[in-house]
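User: Okay, second chain of the day. Same drill as before: sequence in, structure tokens out.
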Amino acid sequence: MFQRERAFDRLFVFDHGLGNLPGHWVNYHRAIVEESRRRGLDPHIFGYKQIDTGLVGDLPATPLFEHGPGAAPGSDLRSNHRLRNQAFLADLGKLDLRDYGPRDIFLFPSVQNYELEAVLAFSARFEAGRKPAFLVLFQFDNGLAAPELPDLPPLVRFDRWLKARVAPRVPVCGSDVADLYRQCPRAVPRRSSQRRLVFMAPSGGLDDAFARLLRREVRSFCMPVSIPGYLQPWAKDGTADIGDRGSGLTVGFLGHSCARKGLPLLPGIVRAIRSRRDDVRFEIQVNNYLPAQPHAASFTRLFSSDVPGVVYHRGHFDRDQYFSLLSRTDIVLLPYDPAVYRYMPSGLLHEALGAGKVVVVPEGTSLARQAASVDAGALAFSEFTEESIVDALSRAITSHAFLREKARAAAPRWLRQHNLQAFMDQLLEQARRAA
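Assistant: Same drill. Structure tokens below.
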């Protein structure tokens, strides 16, 4: 049992995506709640106004936010930025400031430009000596581009299915997004809003990018990876070897499914691989948001029927189901758009590396850099096309035995860097520095 943390009594997490979006942060929040309690902190989580218990289970969360991350009330990028900041600030304004003080931590785990100004304005409302420690975590690059950031992509490149079949939405030009980020600190008085406030971002490039963009320190943080012991490849009760199962390799596609994560490419990839290797099977998880995708009909026709060598899972998985599927997977396929994931992290990658799985990732991205940092069993594709991804996946299948040994050797190195205890240590240390 940890002694009570001397500097702080309570941890408040503000996540407007919690309750209406599936994803890794549901598991992360649950782990953070448990670890906070072990350390003597009293955790509280504020989520979306309509919390879907099918997504969050028994996670204790209080509805607060009227709009989730997907809401786009504005007609263009700047009006959208303004309206979403106003809505986010109005939701935060429901809280009585007198209920909070300097022994509290306010954690915003996934802030984008349309929330940053609201967070700064909210922090400025606290009187001197009464303000909690504010920790603002950036995890999305939004296609940032600006003259001082020449190595960032100029646009968020939407996949061709979205371009062809979806009505134009808010245009996302990198330089415009960068301008919006830069204007946020200027829109709120600096002294009152940024005192007792720390900016943080995952290592791998996003931390440096935001530091240059905002012209202030952005500190690195690790991910709160917490995986079951049976998924740790060095454990005696770890997953069985391929030969023990008496079957071929299993390729897994898991997590939040959407176009930028290569979902529309998947049918062609499966057909190409299965035509070459009928002993390779696929397990594919597609969440509940498939009907909103423009390619849903063709995708559902292909995978909802009995297709040899393909197991198709529809809907959200809870923690046990998710890790059970990961345990059955030999190769984790992450066919993500490199233009979007140049610096953005992937929760699935963190868990796959921690579980000692072979991974296929986009070249020139944070995923490839992080896999290389621990010499994991990874192969990269160079282009966001079926042909390039099929080529990388084919090579991963052919050389799986070699890559599997590398992956298993790299797993403990990865988990020493990215784990729940290290995340909480960093969180509390940065909160103390903010004080």
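The chain has two domains: 10-226+419-434, 229-417.

User: Thanks, on to the next one.
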